[in-house]
Every structure is written in structure tokens, then in C-alpha cells.
Amino acid sequence: MGVSMGKTGRSEVSDINITPMIDVLLVLLVIFMIAQQVLMKSIDIQLPKDQQNPPPTQQEDNIILEVDPGGYKVNTKPLTKDQLAPFLTQIYTGRPKKVIFVKADGRVKYQDVVTAMDVARGAGVKVIGAVLPTT
To answer: How far is C-alpha 113 from the geometric centre of its chain's CA atoms?
Structure first.
């Protein structure tokens, strides 16, 4: 659109020419799309192969700490909160494999489970595993 400037007859265009800017933006868009494909990284994983062997059965030396609303059980032996620490200390004294598995009931407060794991750590347990409850 031209604007008349009086008697001289000169007219100047006051519109911004955005065509070069759009060209630059489209070129940058194509460059970034190509660069994105080049920069994609993948994670190498090794999936286990399906074996025909049956899963191993539970070993007798595993210790399972069950946390129930009524108290604690160590390998199905019921214990109170006060009896738990001395009993676990007695079990893990001189034991080379200091592993315990914790199985918590869904109705138990999280605080009680953490307290049981803390007591087990105090008794000398080095590795704590979680067991999912069966339904």
C-alpha cells in the first residue's frame, strides 16, 4: 500500500516485508527436524531369554519379615515390636548372608514398615528386599 507524500509524487511503502523472515524460519525448522533425528539416542538392554527351567523354589535360609496390622512375623513366628529387635539380632549374629525380605500388608501404615526395616538394619541386615503380597 502506498502513501502519498504531498506534491513530490513520491510514495513509500510502509509494510514490513516478512517473506525473508519466513524463509529463514522454514530453513531453521528443517535443520532442527533433521538434527533431532541425528541426535536421538537409544538404550541398549538385554532381555532375559525364556528358559524351560522351572523357577527356583524358596530357600530355607531366607528370612521373611511380615508386617501385619496385629504385629510382626519372622518366618511365620509372631513377634511384638519389643521382641523384634532382639530376635533379629540373635538371628543375624554370625550369619554370613545378611539378607531379609519384607512383606507388608496393605492395611499397615507406611511408618510401621519403615520402622521394621530400620530395626532390621540395626540388627545387622545389609540387604533388604521387598516381597509383593499375594492376593
So the answer is: 19
Could you list the residue range(s) of the whole structural domain that residue 32 is in?
A: 12-39
- Within a domain: residue 54? no
Spatial distance between the Cα atoms of 98 and 92, rounded to a whole number of angstroms: 6
Do the domain assignments include residue 7?
no
Per residue of the chain (135 residues), give pLDDT as tens: 555 555 565 667 677 788 888 999 999 999 999 998 888 777 677 777 776 766 556 556 788 999 988 889 998 899 988 999 999 999 888 888 889 999 998 888 989 999 999 999 999 999 898 887 665
0.85 exceeded by pTM: no
